[in-house]
Design brief:
Strand 2 and strand 3 form a beta hairpin. It is elongated and about 65 Å long. 20% of the residues lie in helices and 35% in strands. It folds into two domains: 91 residues, Ribosomal protein L6 (Outer Surface Protein A, domain 3), CATH 3.90.930; 82 residues, Outer Surface Protein A, domain 3. By secondary structure, the protein is α+β, with helices and mostly antiparallel strands. The chain has a four-stranded antiparallel β-sheet. A three-stranded antiparallel β-sheet has the order 1-6-5, covered by helices on one side. Strands 2-3-4 form a three-stranded antiparallel β-sheet, with helices on one face. It is built from three helices and 13 strands.
């Protein structure tokens, strides 16, 4: 992970970065995120060199430093760099996860700040949309979860999927777009000698 940590993070135009002690805050078009980083890791914000292939829209870059080459510090170095890079990308571009609903009569729609899901139960399921998350429903069966916090986007998508995970016989339920579901053969499809 140490090689990951050594790579500088380019700050795109329109993103504000603030470092106070071990608290790192970024603000951009997609929102504002704050995270505390380990006290052993030092984060510096500096102007990029005039040469060296820096993208023209970049105004600044973030450098992450570790106190030593010991294994715990190397791990924290790479982890901190990845988390901060995801924060920069989140407030500038955002993250998204796509889900699809499979099943006769299964559908979803939005009602205010809630996602309403009909999943074959006796009543529709209400899913409260977390703050900082945006959900879109297309064609009643396609759900797009987006936001600036990569972890929250993934957690929200996972919680929606958990409401009706795809079953292995007909594949009905909620799955990630493109997810492969290993199917099982039903009893009716099993053939062979009877009563030997």
């Amino acid at each position: 992970m140490s090689r990951v940590g050594e790579s500088p993070i380019i700050v795109p135009e329109g993103v504000k970065v603030q470092i106070e002690g071990n608290t790192f805050t970024v603000e951009g078009p997609k929102g504002k995120l704050t995270r505390k980083i380990p006290s052993e890791i030092k984060v510096e914000l500096r102007e990029p060199p005039p040469e060296g292939g820096v993208p023209p829209k970049a105004a600044k870059e973030i450098i992450i430093k570790r106190p030593s080459s010991e294994k715990p510090h190397k791990s924290l170095h790479g982890l901190s760099r990845s988390l901060l890079a995801n924060m920069i990308k989140g407030v500038s571009e955002g993250f998204f996860k796509s889900l699809e609903i499979i099943g006769m009569g299964y559908k979803a729609n939005l009602k205010g700040d809630k996602l309403m899901l009909s999943l074959g139960f006796s009543h529709p399921i209400e899913f409260s949309i977390p703050k900082g998350i945006e959900i879109k429903v297309e064609k009643g069966t396609q759900i797009i979860v987006s936001g600036g916090d990569k972890g929250l986007v993934g957690e929200t998508a996972s919680n929606i999927r958990a409401l009706k995970p795809p079953e292995p016989y007909k594949g009905k339920g909620i799955r990630y777009k493109g997810e492969y579901i290993k199917r099982k053969v039903g009893k009716a499809a099993v053939t062979g000698p009877v009563g030997t």
